[in-house]
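Continuing the series of single-chain predictions for the mutant panel. This is the parent chain; the variants come on the following pages.
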Amino acid sequence: KNCRPTWRKKSWPSGEKSRAGEFRFSFAGFYGTIRAEVQTSRLKVILDIGFLGHAHDERSARRGAQRVAGNLFAGLRASGTCDLSFVATSHLAGAFDFLAAQKISPVEKLQCGKFQLQRSRFARGLREKVLRSLPDRRLPVRAWRRLLSEIIRAATAGEAQLDDAMLAGADIYHTPHTPFPAAVRRHPRLKKFITLHDFIPLKTPGYFPGNTRPFMDAVLECLTPENFAFCVSEVTRADALNFSKIPPEHVFVAPLAADKNLFYPESDVEKVASVCRRLAIPPEPYFLALSAQDRHKNYPHLIRCFGQLVESGELTDTNLVIVGPNPDQNTEVVEALAKFPRARARVLVPGYVADEDLASVYSGATAFLFPSLAEGFGIPPLEAMQCGTPVIASNTTSIPEVVGDAGILLCPTDEDSWCQAMLQINRESTLRTQLRQKSLERSKLFSWERFIAETLRGYRTAIGLT
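Parent structure:
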């Protein structure tokens, strides 16, 4: 049985370590030392799958952080070393349906009350109405959306009401994004992990809306000396240590990866052409950019570089394809496009692209462009590299950790350098071939198997198994 005496001490005599699923006691006296151990083979892990509920409900929400959460879920489940149960601190209805789709009984494995689930389903219906109405910018509709948003907020306020008995019986609580709920913080024996993707909102707050700061403050409150963190890169780890008092030995690096089933060199030329036709991408060479339209992604810089090359006549038959949701909501992108009227028709925005089409879109590109000003990891360049696509990317923050010498790394604000690199890679087939090979080799360093191995190592370290 899993014995958890409250009197177990935090430290042991030299050479001894506490272990998951066991208790030890020792005392010295006339009769010597007595030790007793009871072991279990599986870690009891509670995983927050609110992010996966969001991605289940909204395809456009399947961004980098959601992919990380999905691979964490799948990897822990496949490892055979964890007894998993789940909570959802957001999007409870989506999380319930996600587990059901995975052939896991949400009634047995997801901690939630019946009334909570009903409220979450009600809020989901309202959220769908809000999303459908987003293109309508009329003032009455915007006011209606605001009202619905307040109702949604009230309806989902109780999604993080967790059962103390379930928490008390677990070894690990792991959230892949959101801060710890109050109920989790109240359990001193429970080892609490949070995955840290980046600290960009704290380092460059001007790129983010005002409501980002309270979220980041809540994340920082999790980084206390008794808690643990996984970071997606060495840069993020350094930031975590700089912004908090969490001890270095409690912060682990678990590098991310790209799904090999989704991102691979697509050699079927007709399939690539078919996907491009469906996405209204003309049968001409194209540069590819893919990401959310956040300001730090630096798309205006990319459009300025491309626009200059088109206006000057340097690029005569090449397009720029920007994949991602809602580009028209980025006013800087709209303003940049307005300055280059001749290039405007050559900048193609297909919007959201389904996962199953991404390998073809990557593989068909002349090069992948990633001018981001800051990243916690940078999954899109790795996805491109795994497809054998040449990469031009920024030389800042964590991006060199990912790209290494397999791509062309440039200052993200140097327009001349970016223009020259784009021209060079567009004209020189030998360079493209060399970078394709380097990309494929470099991408082999990253895998979700390694990510899960590092995660399990962190768990074992926290509970004294290593």
